[in-house]
C-alpha cells in the first residue's frame, strides 16, 4: 500500500527510527481500524522487493516494520531475506490470523477479536499488544498473555478514539497487574505517519 521512513510510534520499539512497509489486504476488518484503506488487496501499487530495499537503504533506518492490513496474507520470505542481506532488521506487526512466513528479528502480535491468532504464532511473539477498546479487553488479553513465551513483552494500548476513557483504566490495570506495560500511539500525538 505504502512505504515511508518515520519513527515507530507504539510498543517496545517506540521512538526508534523505522522504515514502514504497509502491505494491502486484510481479512480481519476491525471496525475501529485507523488504516481501513489498507484492507483491499488490489487498490494499491506494486513495488519490486529490490526497489523497497533500495528505498530503505537510502535512509539510515536500522529497522523495517512490515505491517498492514494483515501482512501475513502475503508470502514474506523473499522480502525478509533481502532485508536481512542488506543489514536491515525485520519487524512485523500482525494479528496472527494467517500462517507465519518470513524470518523475523521481532514479532509484534496484536490479536483481534474479529479473527483470533493461530495458536502456533503465540509462542513466537516477542511482543503482545492488546488494543483496549472496552473493559472486556483486559480479560480477553489475559488469555493470550497466558499463551506467549515468558520473555514476551506485554502491552496494553488504548484504541485511539477511546484513549481518553480507556487510558485511566489501563493505568489502574497495570498498577494491579505489573507484568503489563502501557503503549501509546505517540506518532498520533506528535503528528507523524
From TrEMBL:
**Where on the tree of life does the source sit, at the highest rank?**
Bacteria
The top EC class, named as a word, is lyase
Q: Which residues bind S-adenosyl-L-methionine?
A: 32-34, 69, 110-112
The record's listing under PROSITE patterns reads: RADICAL_SAM
Name the UniProt key words of this record, in alphabetical order.
Answer: 4Fe-4S, Iron, Iron-sulfur, Lyase, Magnesium, Metal-binding, Queuosine biosynthesis, S-adenosyl-L-methionine
Enumerate the residues binding [4Fe-4S] cluster.
26, 30, 33
Domain Radical SAM core, chain residue ranges per copy: 13-193
**Annotated signal peptide:** none
Question: What's the stated role of this polypeptide?
Answer: Catalyzes the complex heterocyclic radical-mediated conversion of 6-carboxy-5,6,7,8-tetrahydropterin (CPH4) to 7-carboxy-7-deazaguanine (CDG), a step common to the biosynthetic pathways of all 7-deazapurine-containing compounds.
In Swiss-Prot or TrEMBL terms, this protein is called 7-carboxy-7-deazaguanine synthase
Identify the species of origin. Answer: Niabella pedocola
Amino acid at each position: 500500500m505504502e512505504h515511508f521512513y518515520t519513527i515507530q510510534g507504539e510498543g517496545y520499539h517506540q521512538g526508534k527510527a523505522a522504515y514502514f512497509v504497509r502491505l494491502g489486504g486484510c481479512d480481519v476488518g476491525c471496525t475501529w481500524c485507523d488504516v481501513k484503506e489498507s484492507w483491499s488487496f488490489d487498490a494499491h501499487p506494486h513495488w519490486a522487493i529490490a526497489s523497497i530495499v533500495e528505498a530503505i537503504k537510502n535512509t539510515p533506518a536500522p529497522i523495517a516494520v512490515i505491517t498492514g492490513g494483515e501482512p501475513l496474507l502475503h508470502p514474506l520470505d523473499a522480502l525478509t531475506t533481502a532485508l536481512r542481506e542488506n543489514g536491515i532488521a525485520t519487524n512485523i506487526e500482525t494479528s496472527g490470523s494467517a500462517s507465519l512466513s518470513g524470518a523475523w528479528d521481532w514479532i509484534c502480535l496484536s490479536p483481534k477479536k474479529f479473527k483470533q491468532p493461530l495458536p502456533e504464532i503465540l509462542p513466537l511473539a516477542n511482543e503482545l499488544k492488546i488494543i483496549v477498546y472496552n473493559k472486556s479487553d483486559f480479560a480477553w488479553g489475559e488469555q493470550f498473555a497466558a499463551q506467549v513465551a515468558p520473555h514476551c513483552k506485554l502491552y496494553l494500548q488504548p484504541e485511539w478514539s477511546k484513549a481518553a476513557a480507556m487510558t485511566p483504566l489501563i493505568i489502574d490495570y497495570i498498577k494491579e497487574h505489573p507484568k503489563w506495560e502501557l503503549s501509546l500511539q505517540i506518532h498520533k500525538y506528535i503528528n507523524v505517519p
